[in-house]
Amino acid sequence: MSRIVSFCFDDGFRASAETVWRLFAARDLSATFCVLAAPELAKDPFIRGAAIADWGFWREAQAAGHEVAPHGWAHERLGELPVPAACESLDRTLEAFVRELPDFELGQAIFHLPYLTAPTPVVQHLSSKVLGVRRKLHQQGLNRAFGHPRGASIDCVTFPDPADERLQARIGRFLGHEAGWLVLVLHGLDGEGWGPVSSDTLAAILDRLTASGVRVAPAGQVLRQGTTAS
Ligand SMILES: [Zn+2]
């Protein structure tokens, strides 16, 4: 039974990213960091005022084997913008990633939508440019591992407080009776960001997954391998 789990860490909290980097590297694993092009402009209360890593940090993370993927310009609620403005914000975000990250390939990347959602025409605009769009499709984060068309939407699940318990329960269900590709969205660790989990919980889950024979891999890497050639 093929089972894969991807961990996406949204919003770019620097202290959490350093811990994630260390926990994953200690197990020879790679994480996915989903980051903003202009976090200093974010109005979201969990991001505004937080210490967010900069492009230099993300270039180092990418060079160390982690995936750094787009999560938006300033974490706007895309459904509250006129469609042309939302599309322009996404295009500006993608241009910044191409400019700032030497290993970033637009057509090979997943866009991780802020608040896990956008209006249909905005999703369609994005899916013509990127390999996949991560959003909430109400499948509890479960996707098939293979057979995705280019521009596919990928489901994900995230956990409000108490996030440790909810994450552990979701992993338990996956290990108990599911197969395929589970895409988890976390934010910060140890009190940082929305729905934080503890670093001890994360470390224990990584060990539990690898001991169970589950492949832990960055979301973009899994989708590149699981996209049908056309
Ligand atoms: Zn976010």
From TrEMBL:
Family: Belongs to the polysaccharide deacetylase family.
Domain NodB homology: 3-98
One Pfam family here: Polysacc_deac_1
Organism, as annotated: Phenylobacterium terrae
Free-text function comment from the UniProt entry: Is involved in generating a small heat-stable compound (Nod), an acylated oligomer of N-acetylglucosamine, that stimulates mitosis in various plant protoplasts.
Protein name per its UniProtKB record: Chitooligosaccharide deacetylase
